[in-house]
Write a structure and sequence with these properties.
Elements (H helix, E strand, L loop, with lengths): L9 E4 L5 H12 L3 E6 L3 H13 L4 E5 L5 H15 L4 E4 L17 H28 L3 E6 L3 H4 L5 H21 L3 E8 L5 H7 L1 H14 L8 H12 L10 E4 L7 H4 L3
Parallel strand pairs: 1-2, 1-4, 2-3, 4-5, 5-6, 6-7
Length: about 260
């Protein structure tokens, strides 16, 4: 990656207190990008990520906000514009789920679906809208949506989650068409990633067991870490991908090659 090409730019990364979002924020900071670190509840983790980014030489703003609320999205975008007068990169990483077996249709309520769509789909849309004037201003804006293999193959933590990520994938293509040529819109679709997402839900021992089981399914014989996904996000943010838009890139170690035979769900 040509880090010099990113130096001096500004990025907004939603849900960047921990996990993939934090890895993205730090990767951007390492490339000389000023970063808005956004969180909903994890204030201590957000401050820790911000401090690490500042040590890398980046300008940082920490902004609390729930992307499901349009007013919060506008406040997050405004923080970047007030601090640096520009937004070059938007990474829609904030996401949520409810873990529920796909065969148990009683496990998900109407509100479960609505909550996941508010954050995973509507939140991403609202963030694009809030950041759009800044993204368009320099004629080279980049939006990267952190989606999931779940949205392509109908697998993952629940049917509602898979459906929301499928909607995000479709929206990625719609926005790429609508916002060209001044803004590119792409999506990264990870498989299993070893972050606190699973350990928070199931506990560390069960999360480790899930990771070990997942590793057996992956042709590359490894479990992804947050930094693996962040590197691909930075590719879409940078000049190397300046002729790429509307793309959905699976970053899953080859899991999609074995999903059908494994009956993964």
């Amino acid at each position: 990656m040509d880090q010099a090409a990113l130096k001096g730019k500004t990025a907004v990364v939603t849900g960047s207190a921990t996990g993939i979002g934090a890895a993205v924020a730090l990767g951007l900071a390492r490339s000389g990008v000023n970063v808005v670190v956004n969180y909903t509840k994890s204030v201590n983790e957000a401050r820790h990520t911000a401090e690490a980014a500042e040590k890398l030489g980046a300008g940082v703003r920490v902004v609390q906000g729930d992307v499901a609320r349009d007013a919060d999205c506008r406040a997050i975008a405004a923080a970047a514009m007030e601090a640096w007068g520009r937004i070059d990169i938007l990474v829609n990483n904030a996401g949520t789920t409810k873990f529920a077996g796909h065969a148990d249709l009683d496990a998900l309520s109407e509100e479960d679906f609505a909550r996941l769509y508010r954050v995973n789909v509507i939140g991403a849309y609202q963030m694009v809208r809030a950041c759009l004037p800044g993204l368009k201003a320099n004629g080279d804006g980049s939006v990267v949506n952190v989606s999931s293999i779940a949205g392509t193959y109908g697998i993952g933590s629940s049917i509602a989650y898979a459906a929301s990520k499928g909607a995000l994938n479709t929206m990625t293509k719609s926005l790429a068409r609508a916002l060209a040529p001044s803004v590119r819109v792409n999506a990264v679709c990870p498989g299993f990633v070893a972050t606190r997402w699973f350990s928070d839900a199931f506990g560390k021992d069960n999360a480790d067991r899930l990771a070990a089981e997942h590793k057996k399914l992956v042709p590359l014989d490894r479990v992804a870490e947050a930094e693996d996904i962040a590197r691909v996000v930075l590719f879409f943010a940078g000049r190397e991908s300046r002729h790429v838009t509307g793309e959905l890139l699976l970053v899953d170690g080859g899991l999609h090659l074995t999903v059908a035979q494994a009956g993964f769900r």
